[in-house]
Design a protein that fits this description.
Blueprint lengths: L2 H17 L10 H5 L2 E5 L2 E4 H9 L3 H4 L5 H23 L6 H21 L9 H10 L1 H4 E2 L2 E9 L2 H11 L4 H11 L11 E5 L6 H6 L15 H9 L10 E3 L2 E11 L2 E2 L2 H32 L48 H4 L3
Antiparallel strand pairs: 1-2, 3-8, 4-5, 4-7, 6-7
Helix pairs in contact: 1-5, 7-13
């Protein structure tokens, strides 16, 4: 049978199946219409539903083109080709190739997770009360006070602080950095020019705000900026402003403002999408962990660690490629190397079993 008449016949039957009344078939409802076979052969079967599903998997823009009978016939023909290739690949045993088996297992796992977990659990499925509860319990993430960044120079006496302040007023940020590296007694910050980084009005460094977002009050005083420095830093108005000498214990410091982050307020309606994503990720991970634990309890996998010793980590040697007697470099090429293109292989995965 020639290819074109065969596809035209399939296309005509498809149109008939799509429009025929359900009462004309032994089955009832939409299943009867979708189950009608429009292409058949040895181990090959394509139904109305198969064609509809192939169209549905494409973008809305691409679906419109199949209202053209010629384009629809091309699609059916490509599905026939894909089924033929799949049938031949199975007949030659390629379905048992290790790479094919591994990819099939991976696809099966992905499909199982999608259908058993992801289809039911989505960010939109997180209840409003849970979103609100998270928002209330993590207020520090959504209501952050302003942050300030300063550099300082710590010296033993107020008189020395006044002298360095006078020098600092003559220069810019680079001048202040040089003075800190040369004269500051704060060994932790002097090598970085006295930089104290960003901190909030409680003296909590920004790096700790994220780590202790649920309980910032638990951050010990020893990890916070000295209260006198915090007060003086937040009193500075503009970047580049210098402070008067500030008593820090029995020493004195002068500050230079280097940055500022304004307070951040995120109301619930703005924060909700982010919260939903986080809660969804947590619930999805919990569902996967629960499934793994269930399977472990049922199947009881056992690791024999002592048998890992013989493992080899060298890459296997590539087999030698025979020379091409016609002067080429071996390998594949020409007509024999032709693989089905995107149109020819469309739907191969869906119809491998037909």
């Amino acid at each position: 049978m020639k290819k074109l008449p065969r596809i035209r016949s399939a296309f005509a039957l498809f149109l008939f199946a799509a429009s025929a009344p359900a009462a004309a078939h032994a089955q009832s409802g939409d299943d009867a219409r979708r189950s009608q076979v429009i292409v058949s052969g040895t181990d090959i079967k394509i139904t109305v539903g198969d064609v509809e599903d192939a169209i549905a998997q494409q973008s809305p823009f691409m679906r419109v083109r199949y209202r053209d009978p010629a384009k629809l016939a091309e699609l059916v023909e490509s599905m026939v080709n894909a089924s033929l290739f799949a049938r031949e690949a199975t007949a030659r045993g390629y379905d048992k190739d290790p790479d094919v088996v591994r990819n099939t297992k991976q696809t099966a796992v992905q499909t199982m997770i999608r259908k058993t977990i992801d289809d039911a659990l989505t960010p939109e499925s997180i209840p409003e009360p849970e979103v609100k509860a998270y928002y209330d319990a993590h207020s520090n993430e959504f209501h952050r006070p302003g942050l300030v960044r300063v550099s300082h120079i710590l010296v033993p006496t107020k008189a020395r602080a006044m002298e360095i302040l006078a020098e600092a007023k003559k220069g810019d940020a680079n001048k202040f950095r040089d003075l800190a590296q040369k004269f500051s007694t704060d060994t932790e910050t002097k090598l970085r020019g006295g930089d104290l980084h960003y901190f909030d009005p409680r003296g909590i460094p920004m790096r700790l705000l994220t780590r202790f977002s649920k309980s910032p009050d638990d951050i010990p005083v020893s990890d916070r900026i000295d209260a006198a420095l915090v007060k003086a830093a937040f009193a500075l108005k503009a970047t580049g402003d210098l402070s008067k000498p500030v008593a820090v214990g029995d020493q004195w410091s002068i500050l230079r403002k280097t940055g500022q982050i304004d307070p951040q307020e995120r109301p619930l309606d703005v924060a909700a999408p982010t919260i939903r994503q986080k809660l969804w990720r947590d619930k999805r991970r919990e569902a996967l962990d629960a499934l793994v634990e269930k399977l472990r309890a049922e199947l009881k996998p056992e690791l024999h660690e002592d048998r890992l010793a013989p493992l080899r980590f060298e890459a296997p040697k590539a087999p030698a490629v025979p020379a091409d007697p016609h002067g080429g470099h071996g390998g594949t090429g020409g007509a024999a190397a032709h693989a089905p293109g995107p149109t020819e292989t469309h739907g191969a995965a869906e119809h491998a079993g037909h």
